[in-house]
Amino acid sequence: MKTFLRTVMFAATLALAAAPALADDAETIALFKGAGRSSEYFNTAYGYAVFPNIGKAGFIVGGARGEGHVYQAGERVGETTMNQLSVGFQLGGTDYAEVIFFRDQSSYNDFTSGNFEFDANAQVTAVTASAGASAGTNGAQGSASGGEHDAATGGGYYKGMAVFTVTRGGLMYEASIAGQKFSFTPTSH
Description:
The chain is of the alpha/beta class. The protein has one domain. Strands 1, 2, 3, 4, 5, 6 and 7 form a seven-stranded mixed beta sheet that branches. The termini are far apart.
């Protein structure tokens, strides 16, 4: 058990160190709006969560962490944090951006209820708009798009949510099982 905890702490430290390029919400939203299919969701979704930088690393046991904001009708309504623990073959570190679209008020309410968790069956569309690589599932089934700014392959809502990612840098090989856990804190006015 002691070795397992050390490994988890090591993976979490690597995840935090794997975030070399800090981006902001506006830059990340612009990136996804220019990425083919993901751009359509900004016009039709009830709301969305933006994670400009998620650091992810692993060596057998892995971890990822990122902070972001939740938007509804184009207005920032709160802060969110994502944590992930994965188990399986994995080696390396990477930094990526993620956006989660909420199809309707029900899915938005599920996510903003305080604590929300994606299981390992959630679909993720990887937008290939930057350097870096990831071989594996990113904790879910991934589908890579065909061009530099084209996310037309894959996508779609799963339980009312659609998830898109863009790798910003790093290299990670993995064949692991993971889920993402989110917390939400509303913005006080």
